[in-house]
Amino acid sequence: MYSMSLRQRTQILYTPDISLILGRLGLKPGFKVVESGTGTGSLSVSIIKSVLPSGHLFTFEFNEKRQLSAKQDFENIGLSEYVTSTHRDVLSNGFLLDDKVKEDSIDAAFLDLPNPEKAVPHAFAVLKTKGKLCNFSPCIEQVQKVSLAMAEQGFYDIRTFECLSKEMQSSNFTYDSIYKDMNDVQ
């Protein structure tokens, strides 16, 4: 629901994609997560709520105006103590962050940015053993590049998903009407 109320600064993720991402990352309370491509913060809020009350999200955005707006949004909705919002190009500077994000200290990482294959080594550096990495890519060429970079870095069980949502139509009927129709056919 939060996603629907946002003033969009970027293209956002909606419930079907968010649910798949959170589930595949296996997020739970206490997890520490890095995210690159904060954007509007739609996924960020869902990540934060998944790791509460003892977890933390470290989110990175290369566009300073978007980063500051998202940081303000986190404060406005009362989540700022569970998130560290940083203006940074992780492709060049990685995820290490003072004493907060160190090598082998992160449970899960999420990438939603241009050229994500360049961020894979940086994510690998901060992930714990058996930590999970998820990348959101709009095109198959990007998926192929990221999958190759992940395999080269030592990731395994690399999978690609397409999440489609389809509203179903239903009709009201009774079993009596079904049996009547069947008897009419005979």
Compact description:
40% of the residues lie in helices and 17% in strands. By secondary structure, it is α/β, with parallel strands linked by helices.
Topology overview:
Elements: H1 2-5, H2 15-25, E1 32-36, H3 42-51, E2 56-61, H4 64-76, E3 83-87, H5 90-93, E4 106-111, H6 120-126, E5 127-135, H7 140-153, H8 175-185
Parallel strand pairs: 1-2, 1-4, 2-3, 4-5
Report what the structure shows.
- This is tRNA (adenine(58)-N(1))-methyltransferase.
- The chain is of the alpha/beta class.
- It has one domain (2-185): Vaccinia Virus protein VP39 (Rossmann fold).
- 40% of the residues lie in helices and 17% in strands.
- The protein has a 5-stranded parallel beta sheet with strand order 3-2-1-4-5.
- The protein is globular, with a radius of gyration of 20 Å.
Strand content: 15-25%
Order of helices and strands: HHEHEHEHEHEHH
Q: What is the CATH level 1 assignment?
A: Alpha Beta
Question: How many helices does DSSP assign?
Answer: 8
The main sheet orders its strands as 3-2-1-4-5
Give me the Rg, rounded: 20 Å
Helical percentage: 25-40%
The coarse silhouette is globular
In oligomeric terms, what are we looking at? single chain
CATH topology (level 3) name: Rossmann fold
The helix-and-strand class reads alpha/beta
Name its key features.
single chain; about 190 residues; alpha/beta; Rossmann fold; five-stranded parallel β-sheet; globular; methyltransferase; tRNA_MeTrfase_Gcd14; transferase; tRNA (adenine(58)-N(1))-methyltransferase; nucleus
